[in-house]
Amino acid sequence: MKATRLAIPEVVLIEPKVFGDARGFFFESFNQKAFNEATGTNHQFVQDNHSRSAKGVLRGLHYQIPQPQGKLVRVVQGAVFDVAVDIRRSSPTFGQWVGEELSEHNHRQLWVPPGFAHGFLVLSDSAEFLYKTTDYYAPQFERCIAWNDPDIAVVWPQLKYAPILSAKDQQGLQLCHAEVFA
Description:
CATH architecture: Sandwich
Distance between the termini: 33 Å
Number of helices: 2
Number of domains: 1
Strand order of the largest sheet: 1-2-10-7-12-5
Helix content: under 10%
CATH superfamily: Jelly Rolls
Strand content: 35-45%
Low-confidence stretches: none
Shape: globular
Mean pLDDT: 97
Structural class: mainly beta
């Protein structure tokens, strides 16, 4: 696999080697040893999640305090614009974001480490989104930063109208008011 550190170097874009022919394709979607080498981490995953969303749905920007989750995310059907926001106050990239298109066609994955808020916008008619987490979901620790926080200023592609948000995501706080990591 090819691993590329993004503008925030802890966030890593992973592109697997895909072997295809007239019958279809095959690729190794996860290998713990290769993942650790590519990211320079030693995280273990404890939970796999799968969501399906319609076009225009925006999920995020989510994170958990004090039980942070690292996420290895990918799309198996459709396409999304996936975003990671650094919310570690002591980081030189605090408040900055990176984003990548993930799709069923490019097979890309994004490593979003603990200490980051995460979200995605569905670009296709629908999308099935899979992700591995380094800690368990704990709703009492879940937090949300507003998807349109002007201080973060994520540039969401193809956003002609207000996105479709959950009630929880409509209550997202601005980064300046949110609980963040030290």
